[in-house]
From TrEMBL:
This is Peptidyl-tRNA hydrolase. It comes from Mangrovihabitans endophyticus. GO terms for biological process: protein quality control for misfolded or incompletely synthesized proteins; rescue of stalled ribosome. PROSITE patterns: PEPT_TRNA_HYDROL_1, PEPT_TRNA_HYDROL_2. PANTHER family: PEPTIDYL-TRNA HYDROLASE. The gene is pth. Its EC number is 3.1.1.29. Its main location: cytoplasm. InterPro entries: Pept_tRNA_hydro (IPR001328), Pept_tRNA_hydro_CS (IPR018171), Pept_tRNA_hydro_sf (IPR036416). The keyword Acetylation does not apply. The active site is at 24 (proton acceptor).
Length: 195
């Protein structure tokens, strides 16, 4: 951990105001919060279709490159890979922050590698990076009610009961992402998975 290479934290979502409150866009919310914590300001990247912010985690801490792809979810991997190459970030220092149907709302989990669980953003990242061995901060959104199509569900906004907890949960997900950078995936799992 000791070296000073940057970390790339990709919040997954869809660009555009109409998607801003969607469950699928929770990755954007988390990286927005991380940017405010490191006093980074998002601006349009010249090297990839993404909004990018940079900052350091704590005084003299690791550099974070935060990005929100502007390609729509199913093409997220292109900007992540392009910026990863430009900033020379190895795959094991890439973190994807994304919504997760397979976790109940309110659970935040972290893992490295594994499958994509049908998540088009992750599938695109794995393909573009040529690896699945990046870390994922998984933000539980639960399964759709009744017979609602998961594709419609992820593109719907959080409900009013969910919104009451949303800021707290986004804050927690940002804490988890920071813990991965500072202490590693296993440490973050031990600290955050129990609760």
């Amino acid at each position: 951990m000791g070296d000073d290479g940057p970390w790339l934290v990709a919040g997954l979502g869809n660009p555009g105001r109409e998607y801003a409150g969607n469950r699928h866009n929770v990755g954007f919310l988390v990286v927005d919060l991380l940017a405010s914590r490191v006093a980074g300001k998002f601006g349009r990247s010249k090297r990839a279709r993404a909004d990018v912010a940079e900052g350091r985690l704590g005084y003299g801490g690791p550099k974070l490159i935060l990005l929100k792809p502007l390609t729509y979810m199913n093409l997220s991997g292109g900007p992540v890979a392009a910026l990863g190459q430009f900033f020379k970030v190895p795959v094991d220092r890439v973190i994807a922050v994304h919504d997760e149907l397979d976790l109940p709302y309110g659970q935040v989990r972290v893992k490295r590698g594994g499958g994509e669980g049908g998540h088009n953003g992750l599938r695109s990242m794995s393909k573009s990076l040529g690896s699945k061995e990046y870390a994922r901060v998984r933000f539980g959104i639960g399964r759709p009610p009744g017979r609602q199509d998961p594709a419609d569900y992820v593109l719907s906004d959080f409900g009013s009961a969910e919104r009451k907890e949303l800021d707290f949960l986004v804050d927690r997900a940002a804490d988890v992402a920071e813990a991965v950078v500072l202490e590693g995936v296993e440490w973050a799992q031990n600290k955050y998975h129990g609760s």
